Amino acid sequence: MLEKSIWGRNLSSLEMQKVLAEAREREFSAGQAIVRVGESAEHWVGLISGLAKMSVSSADGRETTLISTAAGGWFGEGTLIKRGRWQYDAIAMRDSQVALLPRDTFEWLRNTSIPFNHYLQNLMSARMGSFIALLSQDRLLDSSARVARCLAGLFNPELYPEPGRYLDLRQSELGQLAGVSRQRANIALQALEAAGLITVERRGISVLDLQGLRDYRGLTAQPPAR
Fold it and tell me: pTM for this one?
């Protein structure tokens, strides 16, 4: 996974040897915390397999998902650079294998590898764009459009490397990522399928029209049928 990653492909053989020697692998069960809010950030975190969400909770137990990470994705670079503490919980949404790159190794790469720094710049720019889109969707779009944009967002190559047209994603997981109930996610998926944008499979979703998902405005905003 490290050698095939976007950033790993551009490391020298000596740099990759150091990464392979110092990275560690851990397994997390569905529902288990990979990192906890308030803990000191000691690793850059990547998913070898599985699915994780970054979320924050209020004192009364309400929770909102900020972003998700699928196999091949990494998170925590901003917190590591600031030498800070985690500002969110990262929870495994299904059984997951996780790669942990120590902060010292991460900083060594930042100090020695120009390609690695370019990758981090692109990643953090994509992350900022994702958060801006999330804020806009939450304030301006109905639940069906939020589900559509959530699906489209999973095809950002900086955040979700090399996605295929088939998404191994359950309706309950999609609801958590889009910030809607499972029932609303189901209604949205039916609408998107009727619009010819996706096909709902037994254990996932096949995307037929990615640009259509990005442009989808919701059930209340669609033009009348002719």
Answer: 0.78
